Fold this protein.
Amino acid sequence: MSRRPGAAWNWRRMPMEAESPEEYGYERIRANLAESSCRDRRLRDLNLDLDELLLLYGDHRGIPELRAIIGAEAGLGQDDVLTTAGAAMALFLVHATLLAPDAHLIVVRPNYATNLETPFAIGCAVSYIDLTLEEGFRIDVDKVAAAITPATTLISVTTPHNPTGVEIDEPTLRALMHLAERNHCHLLVDETYRDMSAAAVPIAASMSDRVISVSSVSKTYGIPGIREGWVTCADRSLMERMLAAKEQIVLTGSVLDEAIALSVLLRKDELLPVVRAHIAAQREVVVSFMANEPRLEWAVPTGGVVAFPRIRSEANVDTTKFYRTLLDAGVFVGPGHWFDQDPRHFRIGWGWPTPDELVYGLRSISESLGA
Ligand SMILES: Cc1ncc(COP(=O)(O)O)c(C=O)c1O
């Protein structure tokens, strides 16, 4: 739906946010399998001494040391990085800078809701590349190529993918990058879950100045309450325009959030192995659950902490009753409609619950599927 000239953006709340655990009330949930992050940490556990932190307006692009660390990982410099309030704001800046009602976007679906909703709010033309369980939720580059029009300004993908946990392999990523280069548009790669996997493909923005990477500290480090993310891209003119947009929204990021994010990224080598071991152990529990639950099918997730199982149609499950029974048991999952999908699909996450909560949540899923 395109926006009328002069009309306001088409804002509407995303079901995923309106029905999120924080809106529903954490205290009402016994096993939270709806989160896509690792368990939230307490500030105390980070052992920070921030008493001397000057609460000034910070560097407009973000603390240089923080940006240098992020840029270096992609073989880029600090000026190729702009910090934002979470990956959410980074995605907003990218969309608001590269899309307009007369522009065309190619985006994969299902997806993290913002990647679909902000383009909807802007009112640009959109071609959806629908990922299916039958195809392992893998992207067919030929379908993306066929969707390109002269108005295409952006191709948008997510890896590791939310909600399926499927990763884009390097040849596919490079093919998408070449498509963007050949067609003089940009490729947005939402890499918010990237740090959760040890053997991830290169940071996409390292491949070409046509590629934009977005990420944050929220998911992997379990600190989504400090709103700290970033956009990385070697296209300096685009970065300048996104900086202008950031300045018009918030001037600068929160110096407190940036200081905390910096301290966490400086300890990456110490923190990541622990995080990844937790993710791997919890994932095994889910893999074994799926192997023993004949009423569910899925594409095996290779990255991140979420997967998108589907109730087999032959299982004849009443999905309304399924979600109600599950909620009555205090178990929260991400229902299919959060992702514009059939209610037989639902997202489960294993990074947030404790081992006991995960086992309880999975057992409740089986029980709620019926006899
Ligand atoms: C793929 C993806 N991108 C971006 C975000 C936004 O995360 P944050 O703003 O906390 O960094 C999320 C959150 O769920 C996500 O799943």
Q: What stands out?
A: DSSP finds 13 helices and 14 strands in the chain.
